[in-house]
Write a structure and sequence with these properties.
The structure is a single chain. The chain is α/β, with parallel strands linked by helices. Among the domains are: about 5-75 and about 130-250, inorganic pyrophosphatase (n-terminal core), CATH 3.90.1640.10; about 80-130, no CATH class. About 30% of the residues lie in helices and about 15% in strands. The protein is built from 13 helices and nine strands. The chain has helices at about 5-10, 10-15, 30-45, 150, 155-160, 185-195, 205-215, 225-240, 250, 295-300, 310-320, 345-355, 365; strands spanning about 20-25, 50-55, 80-85, 95-100, 105-110, 125-130, 135-140, 160-165, 175-180. A five-stranded parallel beta sheet has the order 2-1-7-8-9, covered by helices on one side. Strands 3-6 form a two-stranded antiparallel ribbon. The longest helix is centred in the first third of the chain and has 16 residues, at about 30-45.
């Protein structure tokens, strides 16, 4: 865990450093990249000559972090290297001098006694490497974890003070070792480090740190979240941290097509009518290998008269096929009550005679015909009075 006291121990190194490099491990994750960018942007705001580099390309998920486009793939191209064909007698002493007008730099290579000077046709020029006063190594347990950054420029790291920051305990390989195993993520430790240095995270720096904390704590749902972390988050938001609501890396959004498995239901429209039955997107398929379908008679015959039904037969009988899925039967709209069946004139007469035979007086409603009068559809003129 990085504490405020530990951060003050490197205060002098950072204050005296003019050029600071931040090197990422080849397998850096979201938290490591966000933490490195927080350091890089903080040093830039403090007026330092800062650089950030990685031996592996940045992934798409890192594009949500501010400053990711400034990560370099090489240590630098600051040093001019002059090379030529060499043998033991061709070089005895190397010196330089400036021309009298001060416009030319002359490199002098003197051969040994009796040796031939270097052949000008073999001279080549190129740029490579850089120099730094302080190097932060992020997420690496050893120099080899930096990948191409270290294999191509091993002397670059040997000539500078180095500080390692990891989320785990590692064997010492840098001059200063810090680990954030007691904190929710590396970004939380880097935030504490910056606050201890008096470089309180603001705006873009605070946004990157908050983004990594949200991702590392599953949006503050992990068990390691405590009051210290919430207080840190409050300070970050007060200092201008912006929460990225559209970052799928942080929020774990799962994009599922609505056509994968549509809901199997009846949709009730606004007018009260029922919608169509929706078949499932993936229908049940019959088994690839035919299952035994021995009849009961065969099973009974082979078992000496005792009825034993094969288990596979029962399973097959219970396995539905696509043809067995039928939409449920529903009532037609606006037909809530069943209409009484109209009786014919002959049926009415039969009921009337039966009631007379039994001595039961037919009610008035049954004495009338069930069929309406022939003029019931014609308009009627009301001739009564409307007075009360």
């Amino acid at each position: 865990m990085i504490t405020t006291q530990e951060s003050t121990s490197i205060q002098e190194l950072i204050t005296n450093a003019k050029t600071i490099y931040i090197a990422l491990a080849a397998t850096a994750n979201y938290d490591t990249v966000a933490s490195a960018l927080a350091l890089y942007l903080s040093f830039k705001e403090a007026g330092k000559n800062a650089f950030i580099m990685s031996g592996s390309p940045m992934r798409v998920e890192f594009s949500y972090l501010i400053g990711v486009d400034e990560i370099q793939s090489v240590v630098g191209n600051r040093n001019l290297v002059v090379s030529f064909a060499y043998n033991q007698q061709s070089v005895d002493k190397v010196s330089y001098h400036i021309s009298e007008d001060g416009q030319r730099f002359n490199l002098v290579i003197a051969p040994a006694d009796g040796g031939k000077p270097p052949d000008p046709s073999t001279v080549e020029y190129r740029y490579e490497g850089a120099s730094a006063d302080l190097v932060f190594i992020m997420g690496a347990s050893q120099f080899d974890d930096l990948g191409a950054l270290y294999t191509q420029e091993p002397y670059f790291f040997d000539g500078a003070d180095s500080i390692s920051i990891t989320t785990f305990q590692a064997q010492p390989f840098a001059r200063r070792m810090f680990e954030t195993s007691g904190q929710s993520c590396m970004a939380e430790g880097v935030a504490v480090l910056l606050e201890g240095l008096g470089m309180h995270p603001k705006d873009d720096v605070a946004t990157n740190i908050l983004s990594s904390i949200e991702q590392g704590t599953d949006r503050f749902q992990s068990l390691g979240v405590g009051p210290d972390l919430f207080e840190l988050v409050a300070r970050l938001i007060r200092n201008g941290a912006r929460r990225s609501g559209s970052n799928p890396v942080i929020h774990g959004q799962l994009q599922v097509s609505p056509n994968v498995i549509p809901p199997m239901r009846h949709i009730l429209q606004n007018d009260g009518a029922q919608g169509e039955y929706v078949q499932p997107a993936v229908a049940l398929q019959p088994p690839a290998t035919p299952v035994s379908t021995r009849s009961f008679a065969e099973a009974l015959k082979k078992k000496g008269g005792q009825m034993q039904v094969p288990v596979q037969t029962q399973v097959q009988q219970q396995t539905p096929t696509p043809q067995q899925f039928q939409p449920p039967q529903t009532q037609q709209p606006y037909q809530q009550y069943a209409q009484p069946a109209q009786q014919t004139q002959a049926e009415n007469m039969k009921i009337h005679q039966l009631q007379r035979t039994n001595g039961v007086a037919q009610p008035q409603q049954f004495q009338q015909s069930q069929n309406p009068p022939p003029d019931w559809l014609q308009p009627k003129v009301y001739t009564g009075s409307t007075g009360v």
